[in-house]
Amino acid sequence: MAWLLDKEIKRKLPNEWKGIVPTEVFLTEARSIVENAKEKGITMRVLGGLSIAMHCQEFKEFASKLKRIGTGVIKGQEYSDIDYMSYRHHREEIREFFDKLGYAKRRATLSSAASERQIYYHPKGWFYVDVFFDKLLVANHPINFRGRLELDYPTISVTDMLLEKIQMWEAFSIKDLKDCLLLLKAHEVKEKGEKESIDASYIAKLLAQDWGFWYTATTNLKKLKKFVSEIDKLGPEAEIDPKLIAKEDRNELSGKIDFLLERTEGEPKPFGWKMRAKVGTKKKWYNPVERPETVGGFGIWEAILKEED
């Protein structure tokens, strides 16, 4: 594995962890890295499922009802990595920043270069860190973060968190479904977004510029509503006990989804959008991306786990 990383990394976990890195370790390290980067003038924000967990700490009880746990990499461990978005002009600074923290950089590949990302591994092999620049290109519908990282701290905005989830067409998972439900439960959906609310206007205007993104996002939102409305039947398939999700919660979630769909539907669409809509799904409307089992560490995470002993 030496040729893959710029320094040797071996996985060493405290015995009391019993082979699983606690969620609290991810939360603490994620925030610490953002704070340290800020001190050095580097803008970094947490994204992905971990950012949702950080932004929904007051709704841990609801998250536990959803049983949002497991990554498929390590059984019983909630997360396997920390994802960040930064600006491209910080690229070289970030390389030096992680080196001083003792992290090992994953050597660049054609794939990582094309997707504008850098991958680093914790000094003790606890997890890896994925850093993206300007845009989330590893997506069915790339999301532009230029000028948006200042909207919140230490995470991306809750609006962008939702967009990051509902842009998925090929690999929208049970984990992503639960992240969306938690995000919607913990935040209001408003016409004009504030720090603690989802900006329906921004989402509607963004989707009005891209029929493909609109189709994927609205399809996912409709599926979310269907799941909520039929949770008595569908809940067990997602390992959710329907009895734990109160009627008030179901109504609240459905109402927020309805507002987003109505606001998106009512946004005026330009001529180009309408012409693309006529073609519909006869033409591929999304960008294919790498499969979730390889996209994070390009297979290297598994190599570290094998070397644990």
Give helix % range. Answer: 40-55%
Would you tell me the structural class of the helices and strands? alpha/beta
The biggest beta sheet is recorded as: 5 strands, mixed
Number of helices: 14
The run of helices and strands is: HEHHEHEHEEEEHHEEHHHHHHH
Low-confidence stretches: 292-309
How much is the average pLDDT? 89
Share of β-strand residues: 5-15%
Adjacency order of strands in the biggest sheet: 1-2-5-4-3
Total domain count: 1
Total number of strands: 9
Oligomer, anyone? single chain
Radius of gyration: 20 Å
Identify the overall geometry. Answer: globular
**N- and C-termini, Cα separation:** 15 Å
Summarize the entry for a quick read:
The chain is an alpha/beta fold. The chain has one domain.
Characterise this structure.
The chain has about 300 residues and is an alpha/beta fold. It has helices spanning about 25-40, 50-55, 60-65, 90-100, 110-115, 160-165, 175-185, 200-205, 210-230, 230-235, 245-265, 270-280, 290-295, 300-305; strands at about 45, 80-85, 105, 115-120, 130-135, 135, 145, 190, 195-200. It has one domain (about 15-305). The protein is built from 14 helices and 9 strands. Helix 6 packs antiparallel against helix 7.
